[in-house]
Amino acid sequence: AFVLSAAAAVSAADCNPTKASCPAIAGFTGPYSVDFSNNKALSSSDWIVAAYEDPFVKPSAQGLQFQLTNYTDAPNIWTSKYFLYGTVSVVMKSAPGKGVISSAVLMSDTLDEIDWEFSGNNFGKNVPTVQTNYYGKGIVGSYDRGTLPTVNGEMTTAFKNYTLVWKADSLTWMIDNKVVRTLKRSDTGDREHQYPQTPARFHLGAWDGGSPTSPDGTATWAGGRTDIHGFPYSSYVRSVSIIPDKHCAQYSYSDKSGSEGSVK
């Protein structure tokens, strides 16, 4: 993305292990799945809602609704627990609207990040388009690691299954079980292009990248300035599945390197 995702902006870690000695964090001790269809409510023990955004995250017949009533809203949620490597899938319908961004992101406390980003007008493209991205320790460099795969069918009108397969040696992005990108760890480095390698939580949300207050570069990336008379805009999450490669009740860091080797 042109900017760090809403997950990074809205839910900065309480404690970044690269900057301080942090308390242990809770991990998944087994697979997790939830079906939000048929008005199922969000579990406060499994998910955290961004401050002041509770009114805009609500059950619906289609699934969990993330509603933007105006350009200042940014409904975002994230899991209360972490995992290091595994598979996460979300069945969702992204929000319509020029410049309106929906996101599904893995984010660690060290600011390692793995992204799905969706634009309500396909980032200004004339075909259905999604963005994949990754960062290590929040280092964006020259914003040169994103890709824009085309998608079979509109994402704002149909539910699709978006999957991240996060392994120690590779990252795979899949849409409806079709691989759209693979990143090998061996093709990354230890400076600008660091591989995500620390325990992460799964974030879901929506925000207005094309708002009147967004910088020009952000609005251009998002697909242009949003029609402020078109609100509300909503995305819907039908289900989430998380399968950690290893089960771990808690994680801690032995130093401030932010490396996989520091994770205990």
TrEMBL record:
One of its GO terms (biological process) is carbohydrate metabolic process. PROSITE patterns: GH16_2. It holds the Pfam family Glyco_hydro_16. It comes from the Eukaryota. Keywords: Hydrolase. Coiled coil: none annotated. Residues 23-245 form the GH16 domain. GO terms for molecular function: glycosyltransferase activity; hydrolase activity, hydrolyzing O-glycosyl compounds. GO terms for cellular component: fungal-type cell wall. The keyword Hydrolase applies. InterPro entries: Beta-glucanase-like, ConA-like_dom_sf, Glycosyl_Hydrlase_16. This is Glycoside hydrolase family 16 protein.
